Amino acid sequence: MAIRNIVTEGDEILTKVCRPVEKFDGKLGQLLDDMYETMQEANGVGLAAPQVGIRRRIVVIDVGEGPIELMNPEILRESEEMDEDTEGCLSFPGKYGLVKRPRSVTVRAQDRDGNLFELEGEGLLARAFCHEIDHLDGVLFITRVSRMLSQEELIEILSKREREEDE
């Protein structure tokens, strides 16, 4: 496995629509392993292939429940209920904003062997699905932000969350 460079704001690949995965082979497996390791090293919860310079419909996610790998993902259903919450992106280091996303979504994708499956996600997982699939369509979180947050606001939000978790 290897840590890959994360593409940052301004790189054209971040605004391009990605091509489908057609080959499910050892090269794909290596890329998935590298992406997961890169995401963990950067303390992220999700990473899409264009963020490591590859224009393919590939996503890795881990919101604390173990790795999820999605090839050619699509959102089948999303709840009408929406939540506005803090969001950041490994390709936009230090930038955070408030983004409204569906509270729950159902995703269909393929695994590393090409098998189709469906997953339902709520809360942070639903947010991660939406954020990472947006990357595959060249859509960046900064275009969905209702308001960017200052460092002071971010620290206040994170402190409040920690206090709530301790209660």
Key structural traits:
167 residues, alpha+beta, 3 helices, 30% strand, globular
Summarize the model shown.
It comes from Yeguia hominis. With 167 residues, this protein is an alpha+beta fold.
Low-confidence stretches: none
Structural class: alpha+beta
Order of helices and strands: HEEEEEEEHEH
**What is the first-to-last residue Cα distance?**
39 Å
Q: How many β-strand stretches?
A: 8
Give the strand order of the largest sheet, numbering strands 1, 2, ... along the chain: 1-2-3-6-7
> What Rg do the Cα atoms give?
16 Å
Helix content class: 25-40%
Provide the β-strand percentage band. Answer: 25-35%
Report mean pLDDT, rounded to a whole number. 96
What does the largest sheet look like?
Answer: 5 strands, antiparallel
**Shape by Cα distribution:** globular
The number of helical segments is 3
GO biological process, one term: translation
Keywords: Hydrolase, Iron, Metal-binding, Protein biosynthesis
Function: Removes the formyl group from the N-terminal Met of newly synthesized proteins. Requires at least a dipeptide for an efficient rate of reaction. N-terminal L-methionine is a prerequisite for activity but the enzyme has broad specificity at other positions.
Enzyme class: hydrolase
